[in-house]
Amino acid sequence: MPNLSLADLSSEIEANVRRALAEDIGSGDITAQLIPAERLASARVITREAAVVCGTAWVDAVFRQLDPRVAVHWQVQDGDKVSADQTLFRLEGPARALLSGERSALNFLQTLSAVATRCRHYADLVEGTQVKLLDTRKTLPGLRLAQKYAVTCGGCHNHRIGLYDAFLIKENHIAACGGIAQAINTAHQIAPGKPVEVEVESLEELREALEAGADIVMLDELSLEDMREAVRLTAGRAKLEASGGINDSTLRVIAETGVDYISLGTLTKDVKAVDLSMRLAL
């Protein structure tokens, strides 16, 4: 699947931010009302740890929706590597808006930067190989597109976005359809032209999938020896994706088997938010 870009996400970003502000501010930020409405302020946001930045457009949207008088001055851009104590951006505008938007803005930035940082770590582990690291649907509800964009900022790639844009025929689908060939043939009839991927657990199932015309075959927890044999047997007739039980210590050797893709749920589901801090000056 093609990678998401910011151009694909304009309406999504605005919707994400509207929901976040409604959730946080609700009927009004009563604490911010302690500050005179005319009071102006400035602020800077720093990272307390090394990271890969992602989420600048969401931060911009937070302050744009709160008060268009707020100016956001970025010193980094999405995809940049930053070090601890580095300033990411500065703010100028009404103090109330700066404080009301702080948490929502930092929530987006710390979460999406965490995904980008994790992805850069894994991308670096397979540097020099031909494999593409793919994300999965293991994302935060409501933030799938945002997280998948963050994946690309970290140097990894997007798999299917949802259940609608490609077939992924797994063990339970195969059982319900009566076999691999039956499932693949039915998929081709239902939606001609949509990519058809099927999960296999053995080389024999791989042969069935290839004969039935699968576009991509997911090798589920096959041994390294079987993965190498799968690459030989496939000989370019379909793309091969390794999945299941993959970690830092096994990623590189799996990439070197010659598979086309490795999918990793951990790119989006096991991330730890980047530690950010906003410092206000009146």
From TrEMBL:
Database matches in SUPFAM superfamilies:
Nicotinate/Quinolinate PRTase C-terminal domain-like (SSF51690), Nicotinate/Quinolinate PRTase N-terminal domain-like (SSF54675)
The keyword Mitochondrion is assigned to this record: no
Q: Which Pfam families match?
A: QRPTase_C, QRPTase_N
The record places domain Quinolinate phosphoribosyl transferase N-terminal at 29-113
Query: Which controlled-vocabulary keywords does the entry list?
Result: Glycosyltransferase, Pyridine nucleotide biosynthesis, Transferase
GO CC, any one term: cytoplasm
- GO process terms (BP): NAD+ biosynthetic process; quinolinate catabolic process
Q: Name one GO molecular function term.
A: nicotinate-nucleotide diphosphorylase (carboxylating) activity
Q: Where is the Quinolinate phosphoribosyl transferase C-terminal domain?
A: 115-279
Annotated pathway, please? Cofactor biosynthesis; NAD(+) biosynthesis; nicotinate D-ribonucleotide from quinolinate: step 1/1
Which residues are recorded as binding substrate?
A: 103, 136-138, 160, 170, 199, 220, 243-245, 264-266
Q: What is its EC number?
A: 2.4.2.19
> Could you tell me what this protein does?
Involved in the catabolism of quinolinic acid (QA).
What family does the entry list? Answer: Belongs to the NadC/ModD family.
Q: What is this protein called?
A: nicotinate-nucleotide diphosphorylase (carboxylating)
Q: Record the organism.
A: Ectopseudomonas guguanensis
